[in-house]
Design a protein that fits this description.
CATH topology of one domain: Spore Coat Polysaccharide Biosynthesis Protein SpsA, Chain A
CATH architecture of one domain: Alpha-Beta Complex
Order of helices and strands: EHEEHEHEHEHEHEEHHHHHEH
Largest sheet: 8 strands, mixed
Number of strands: 10
CATH class of one domain: Alpha Beta
Distance between the termini: 12 Å
Structural class: alpha/beta
Helix content: 40-55%
Strand content: 15-25%
Number of helices: 12
Length: 279
């Protein structure tokens, strides 16, 4: 594991927007853990949302954190989060009925010229190093918005047997990392595109068709399109330059989306702790 780098002052400028509301009323992760919401699910004894907030703060690249959700009545179930909100370390706002709408609401609370890092509260394996790598690479990209991806083969190599949604393209198979950087106002124009795509996120070929049309479906199914070609098509559709940041760490591609993911991420964190203790 690489050491946390000290970013220069030009890079210390992002506002983090963390989406923390459940997608459904009966979230399987919350049901499995007994937590009032998924974000509060304990992973090795620490609520997921606290792990995410700690990674953001330790990265040295975040100047403010906005937390969208969970609903206000649930906050008392996580005293440590309540304390951070009361002390002004975190700004809480209520969520809306979908991640894209919640993201749009969160962006409205942030000045238009401020770059935004968006992630989710179920990213239990998020580390300062992952945050730093993604934001440093995003800042160097000639882009308005960036999305974090990890190669599927790296995820499978690190976590044999795990099932993740895969985007299959000519130059590789990729998994999303729930890491996004909106680098300017044009980048934020991608959010309406996200609203249209949201319901199809688990069916990539239908997503391609709904957004880019039938020819794009054929190119996708035949695996003719490359990653850059797909992103360029999105860019031309929404009027914002979109680029991918390929993450070298497979941990970036694992969130706690299913009940069985709890055991997976806990085993990873326990192994990481054992490795540190051996040093």
């Amino acid at each position: 594991m690489s050491k946390v780098q000290t970013p220069n002052k030009k890079m210390d400028k992002f506002v983090a927007l963390v989406l923390a509301a459940d997608r459904t009323a009966n979230d399987p992760v919350a049901n499995k853990s007994g937590a009032v919401c998924k974000a509060f699910t304990p992973i090795c004894g620490v609520p997921m949302i606290i792990r995410v907030l700690d990674a953001l703060e330790a990265s040295g690249m975040i100047k403010a954190i906005i937390l969208c959700g969970p609903p206000e009545p649930a906050l008392s179930a996580c005293p440590e989060l309540e304390q951070r909100i009361e002390r002004g370390y975190v700004t809480w706002i209520s969520n809306l009925d979908s991640p894209s709408r919640s993201a749009n609401k969160g962006l409205e609370h942030i000045e238009k010229d401020v770059p935004v890092f968006l992630t989710t509260a179920d990213h239990a394996l998020l580390t300062p190093e992952i945050v730093q790598y993604f934001l440093c690479e995003s800042s160097k990209a000639d882009s308005d918005v960036t999305v974090g991806l990890v190669e599927h083969e790296n995820v499978i190599a690190a976590f044999p047997g795990t099932k993740r949604t895969v985007i299959r393209l000519r130059d590789g198979n990729f998994c999303s990392c729930n890491l996004f950087a909106f680098l300017n106002q044009r980048g934020r124009d991608l959010v309406p595109f996200w609203k249209r795509a949201e319901d199809l996120r688990k069916q990539p070929w239908r997503l391609v068709g709904a957004i880019l049309g039938p020819i794009a479906i054929l190119l996708y199914l035949l695996r003719i399109s490359t990653l850059n070609q797909a992103l360029n098509a999105v860019s031309s559709k929404v009027g914002a330059r979109s680029r991918a940041v390929i993450m070298p760490n497979a941990h970036a591609g694992v969130d706690v989306d299913k009940a069985e993911d709890i055991a997976l991420v806990e085993s990873v964190l326990e192994e990481t702790t054992r490795d540190k203790n051996r040093i």
